[in-house]
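Z., the sequence and structure:
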Amino acid sequence: DFLRTNRAMIERIDLEAPNFVTLSSNSGRFPVSITNRLNEPVTVELDVAARDPRMTVAPVGPVTLQRDQRVTVTVITNSRGVGITTLTARMLTQESRPFGENATFQVRTTQIGAVVWIVMAVGGAVLFIAAGRRIMLRVRGHRRRTRGIS
């Protein structure tokens, strides 16, 4: 009976992670959801680990869910490389024992973030220089016209 009760409890706490995550730089964040379908509050720990040692995942800590509550936790990662790695999210009891289904998914890290910021900065600079030049030419043209009229 004890085993049946615990199995029923474990089956009523769900973990949902994205299938695939793309991070536009070496660090980023993504959501993982935990749902408590029990009639009582529960506290679980979320453990997220990467297969590639170049990627680190910040500890999430304990998550307390009220009955019939869904909580979305933000997972923060940092990578010392570019590429695709596999992450595994799992729930732990307060005694650090894993339970329930694991969620395994892929994370791609890129350097697009830095390139986008550089392109935006250069584009903004060109825009402001062109606008400033155009304003100066109009002011000069206006001064020439007003001098010729007087």
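The mean pLDDT is 87. The longest strand covers residues 98-109.

Let me know what you think.
H.
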